[in-house]
Specification:
Blueprint: H1 2-13, H2 18-33, E1 37-44, E2 49-56, E3 67-69, H3 73-81, E4 85-87, E5 109-117, E6 120-129, H4 138-164, E7 177-180, E8 182-185, E9 188-195, H5 213-237, H6 244-256, H7 262-271, H8 276-292, H9 297-317, E10 331-335, H10 340-345, E11 351-356, H11 364-372, E12 376-378, E13 392-396, E14 401-404, H12 408-427, E15 445-450, H13 453-461, E16 467-471, H14 473-477, H15 485-499, E17 504-507, H16 534-539, H17 541-554, E18 561-565, H18 571-590, E19 599-604, H19 607-610, H20 613-617, E20 622-626, H21 627-635, H22 653-668, E21 673-676, H23 683-692, E22 696-699, H24 704-711, H25 716-726, H26 732-745, H27 756-767
Parallel strand pairs: 9-10, 10-11, 11-12, 15-16, 15-22, 16-17, 17-18, 18-19, 19-20, 20-21, 21-22
Antiparallel strand pairs: 1-2, 1-6, 2-3, 4-5, 5-6, 7-14, 8-12, 9-13, 13-14
GO biological process, one term: phosphoenolpyruvate-dependent sugar phosphotransferase system
Protein name: phosphoenolpyruvate--protein phosphotransferase
EC number: 2.7.3.9
């Protein structure tokens, strides 16, 4: 049965549209199971009725004509119960519903299984048999359940394709087709989709030899030079928007085009008698297979870069075949795999949003998008890319959601958010130099999270009082080797000088999990529970010592450096790290540098540390909660995985209780505690954290003015009462609603970010 199942899935995957996919399913399943009837009923989201969409065995003219209510008949019973129903004599069942136009009165045995995709009931797959003595056995039932589970995604993809085209299952006009992904860069964008396809298809290049090797070599060298010039031109076009370290992303491409890299191997194949296009195909596919087999998320994204270069080179070899794209005034760039070079192809001022089927917040594109301030959604599931070209799209980079063909109501909803964001930014500029202090005099430090120099420029313009988290891994990620001590020193000095005399908290190298380096691959079955953060750098003290030495030297004359250790899980890691830091400090002093010993703190990210706060606080100068990872580990949810992202909730009671405990225990031994993460940048979350006693909040620069405005407008006692109220609740969604209601009642409804529930509820009401 396994080979039969595989063949059916492959055939359905190649279907041109939903109807063809359904016809293949009923035909192949009927044959595989040896039944007389196989039918698919899909639940129409507009009418909330089951519609017979395909059948093999019932009268064909009934397809599209027969429908039943959500809980009507045996089909409705399967759907409402969301489990298989297997009957030997279906007509005797009290829920049996007979439709004469189908001719199903001849069939007595019935087996129906639900079609469910990401918790959404999509329809019911049914097989029927004439003999009343036959009851489908357990093996047949298991096969049909497996078929349903395997094909649910294909059906969802095909159904979405039709919906994006503007039609529901019943042929009625459809709007507000939504897809859930992962936030890549915050913000909301409304624009026209421009789908970027690969410049050329390497898979279609035929294998053939050549007798004129010199001519093929000349053609290939010309293609390499042309692509190199293209990339340099794009990098120059973006130079006004990016700092040098961000432009270094394009150096990765240029290094791949060096004679000793990919072109050298292609040239060798050509000399063996293979024509240029075939040689290029072989080398690129070999590189891609090599990286994809590594099973590492970051390295897989490097395979994307190699594939993109291969396509560009092939496009030059296939002169004249590349299509010139037209970019409207408000372009939302869409692709299966967006690459950094694609961004630079859009004329300046026209790019408003990005949508990438593959990738995560760690990809090069996401890094550039945040630096450029372009709302981005990554990692979308079941999205028919080719249907989005020319369609109006809404990109919700706050929640990682995309809407196609928005209704007037939904468009208006998000346009208001865009307008309010712009108005708020202008209106809050006056707060830049004012302190973050409540009406009853409670002072709170507002800091920023940075990684790129553009973050610093934006942070200073928003009135940040320092850096609560500088992600030192960013300079490591944009190179193809470990940066030298001098290179690191220059990066760190730039950050320290920008904020002096305010504190700059630098997190030591935090790789692993979803952050990896191409030149230092980490292959693990479960990277988030593996070798990451301080575990890596303590195992490689040569990396840790060079980094700390660069930090200390960069702080000379400024002395505003603070060092923070990531992913601490026990006391011994802190003691070992402190030993190395003190060793470097004395060595640098002996070299003649006039520096002060920086404050050293630890990040509270692992649940075990929540119960060791007092012991840790006795050894360090401060603590900082990494709320994103702490939430992820407490709830056992990968926040970058769209399939479980809905379970990730910063307002979960367990998360709030843990945060309360951390603040209390840190203050009980007289040590300051801050927090860096998404919760700190949420106005409601910031109020709760202030009430808990956190001394500083570190956030994205764009969130800082809103948080400051809210805190300056309330008294701390009001926030403490709000905290006490929500700690009595047991649902994260109820807690969030309670906090949002309190903000609205206090006059801050305009500060609330667009929520997944808000957009979904509006889309649902518009559809009904």
């Amino acid at each position: 049965m396994l080979s039969t199942l595989r063949n059916i899935v492959q055939e359905v995957n190649s279907a041109r549209d939903l109807q063809e996919a359904l016809d293949i399913i009923v035909s192949r399943v009927q044959k595989a199971m040896g039944t007389e009837v196989c039918s698919v009923y899909l639940l129409d989201p507009v009418s909330n009725r089951y519609i017979l969409m395909a059948t093999e065995g019932l009268y064909r003219e009934s397809v599209g004509q027969v429908s039943m209510g959500y809980s009507e008949g045996l089909v409705g019973l399967v759907g409402s119960r969301e489990e298989p129903i297997n009957l030997e004599d279906a007509p005797s069942h009290p829920r049996y519903r007979y439709f004469p136009e189908t001719g199903e009165e001849r069939f007595r045995s019935f087996l129906g299984v639900p079609i469910i995709h990401h918790r959404r009931l999509m329809g019911v797959l049914v097989v029927q048999q004439r003999e009343n003595t036959r009851c489908f056995d357990e093996g047949e039932e298991a096969f049909l359940v497996t078929i349903s589970a395997q094909l649910a995604g294909v059906i969802a993809h095909s159904e979405a394709t039709g919906a994006i085209s503007g039609l529901s299952l019943t042929g009625e006009e459809a709007h507000d087709v939504s897809f859930n992904g992962v936030p890549g860069a915050p913000g909301v964008a409304i624009g026209t989709g421009v789908v970027v396809y690969p410049a050329a298809d390497l898979d279609l290049v035929p294998e053939k030899g050549t007798e004129d090797i010199d001519q093929e070599l000349d053609l290939f060298r010309a293609a390499v030079q042309a692509v190199r010039e293209d990339i340099e031109r794009v990098a120059k076009r973006l130079s006004s928007q990016l700092r040098p370290e961000e432009q270094a992303l394009f150096d990765v491409y240029l290094r791949m085009l060096g004679d000793e890299a990919l072109p050298g191997e292609v040239a060798n194949r050509i000399r063996e008698g293979i024509w240029a296009q075939g040689a290029l195909k072989q080398v690129v596919q070999q590189y891609v297979r090599h990286f994809e087999m590594m099973d590492d998320h970051y390295l897989q994204e490097r395979a994307v870069d190699i594939r993109d270069l291969g396509r560009r080179l092939l496009s030059r070899l296939q002169e004249g075949e590349q299509k010139d794209l037209e970019y409207p005034e408000r372009t939302v760039l869409v692709s299966e795999e967006l690459t950094p070079s694609m961004l630079g192809e859009v004329p300046k001022g026209r790019l408003v949003g990005l949508v990438s089927v593959k990738g995560s917040s760690n990809s090069h594109v996401a890094i550039l998008a945040r630096a450029m301030g372009v709302p981005t959604v990554m990692g979308l599931v079941d999205i028919p890319v080719n249907q989005l070209d020319g369609k109006e799209l809404v990109v919700d980079g706050f929640e990682g959601q995309l809407y196609a063909s928005p209704s007037a109501d939904l468009r208006s909803f998000y346009q208001e958010i865009c307008d309010e964001e712009n108005e708020l930014i202008r209106g809050l500029e006056a707060l830049r130099d004012k302190p973050c202090e409540t009406t009853d005099g409670h002072r709170l430090a507002l800091l920023v999270n940075t990684g790129l120099m553009t973050d610093v420029v934006r942070s200073l313009s928003h009135g940040a009082e320092g850096i609560g988290l500088y992600r030192t891994e960013v300079p490591f990620m944009i190179k193809d080797r470990f940066p030298s001590e001098q290179e690191q020193r220059e990066y760190y000095r730039e950050q320290l000088e920008a904020f002096a005399p305010n504190p700059v908290t630098m997190r030591t190298l935090d790789i692993g999990g979803d952050k990896a380096l191409t030149y230092f691959p980490i292959q693990e079955e479960n990277p988030f529970l593996g070798w990451r953060g301080i575990r890596v750098t303590l195992d490689h003290p040569e990396i840790f010592l060079v980094q700390v030495r660069a930090m200390l030297k960069a702080s000379e004359g400024l002395n505003n450096l603070q060092i923070m250790l990531p992913m601490i899980s026990n006391i011994s890691e802190v003691e070992e790290s402190l030993h190395l830091i003190y060793r470097v400090y004395h060595e640098v002093r002996e070299e003649g540098y006039q520096i002060h010993m920086p404050k050293v703190g630890v990040m509270v990210e692992i649940p075990a540390v929540v119960y060791q706060i007092r012991e840790l606080a006795e050894r360090v100068d401060f603590l900082s909660v990494g709320s994103n990872d702490l939430t992820q580990y407490l709830l056992a949810v990968d926040r970058n995985n769209p399939r479980v992202a809905q379970l990730y909730h910063s307002y979960h009671p367990a998360v709030l209780q843990a945060l309360v405990r951390v603040a209390q225990d840190a203050h009980s031994v007289g040590k300051p505690v801050g927090i860096c993460g998404e919760l700190a940048g949420d106005p409601g979350g910031a109020l709760l954290l202030m009430a808990m006693g956190y001394d500083s909040l570190s956030m994205n620069a764009a969130s800082l003015p809103k948080v400051k405005s809210v805190i300056r407008s309330v008294n701390r006692e009001w926030a403490i009462q709000l905290l006490e109220d929500v700690l009595l609740l047991d649902s994260p969604h109820v807690i969030k609603s309670c906090v949002d209601l309190a903000l609205r009642n206090a006059g801050f409804g305009r500060y609330l970010r667009p929520g997944r529930t808000s957009g979904a509820a509006l889309a649902e009401s518009a559809a009904s």
